[in-house]
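FORM 12-B: Structure-to-Sequence Request
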């Protein structure tokens, strides 16, 4: 509601959407739409991990693409490993060494409360387990969405000040956390998160000059699934979000380019989504057609079809 009031007060000329992957199609459309008399604003969207739909739109030519490939000075790629249950004890020993050296760690879990149906680890249970059974000599914090705002702020401030060595949290820490002393990201139930989200979690560490690590703990029954293993192994091999987004696109599809669904494979009649040569040719022909006949007067059926799409379409 506050956004609507703000939007109606100013003439917006330039709109920036950061962490674009966190928004849905309709949410992004709302952020871009304006009541400007002069028309819609210029739009810049930013993300370390483009969602499949956005990546596909860049291939189709609707979005101009800029890449920043170099890392900030002094940073090192985060070493990422898949840890099986047999190696859990050794992983805990490694975490202990890092913390004794003065570093800090995140432990991310998929759930807040324990669930028999889902069989995934919860932050509440994992916090108690680590605090009592694994790292009783360290201060361990708990962070999740059900905590009061004041409690969440205090936990984060204690973690920033190194009063907490291990922070057990939900996906709340996915974005907006920048603590250079944190060198370990442990992800329980890693198979329950998408590639983009896993890459975002990993981005919470490695923000200083020290070598950092991301440990992926998949559920034992899921590690034998070929698709799950392929997705997690991609994270161990590649460190840039654009490459991972390409893999995510191939696995999940781009969804509806003229709709709101952001994953799944569209039913193209001629080309596949990965037939870049045909896509480029179609783009060139479309540009020629629009240049010669911008109002599509010679193509009434096409104009009618496009008119129907425009009501539900947000190509961003």
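FORM 12-B RESPONSE
SEQUENCE OUT:
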């Amino acid at each position: 509601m506050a956004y609507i009031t703000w939007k109606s007060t100013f003439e917006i000329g330039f709109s920036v959407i950061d962490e674009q992957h966190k928004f849905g199609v309709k949410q992004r459309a709302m952020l871009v739409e304006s009541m400007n008399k002069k028309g819609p604003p210029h739009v810049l969207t930013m993300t370390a991990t483009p969602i499949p739909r956005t990546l596909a739109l860049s291939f189709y030519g609707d979005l101009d693409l800029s890449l920043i490939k170099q890392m900030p000075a002094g940073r090192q790629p985060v070493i990422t490993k898949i840890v099986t249950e047999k190696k859990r004890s050794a992983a805990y020993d490694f975490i202990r060494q890092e913390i004794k050296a003065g570093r800090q760690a995140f432990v991310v879990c998929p759930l807040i409360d324990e669930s028999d149906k889902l069989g995934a680890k919860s932050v509440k249970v994992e916090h108690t387990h680590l605090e009592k059974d694994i790292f009783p000599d360290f201060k361990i914090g708990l962070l999740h969405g059900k905590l009061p705002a004041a409690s969440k702020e205090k936990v984060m401030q204690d973690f920033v000040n190194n009063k907490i060595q291990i922070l057990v949290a939900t996906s709340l820490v996915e974005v907006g956390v920048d603590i250079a002393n944190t060198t370990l990201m442990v992800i329980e139930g890693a198979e329950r998160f998408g590639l983009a989200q896993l890459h975002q979690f990993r981005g919470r560490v490695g923000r200083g000059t020290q070598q950092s690590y991301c440990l992926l703990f998949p559920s034992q029954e899921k590690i034998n699934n070929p698709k799950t293993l392929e997705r997690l192994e991609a994270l161990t091999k590649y460190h840039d979000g654009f490459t991972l987004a390409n893999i995510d696109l191939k696995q999940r599809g781009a969804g509806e380019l003229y709709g709101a669904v952001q994953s799944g494979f569209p039913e193209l009649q001629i080309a596949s989504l990965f037939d870049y040569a045909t896509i480029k040719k179609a783009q060139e022909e479309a540009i020629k057609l629009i240049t010669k006949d911008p109002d599509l007067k010679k193509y009434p059926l096409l104009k009618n079809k496009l008119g129907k799409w425009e009501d539900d379409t947000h190509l961003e």
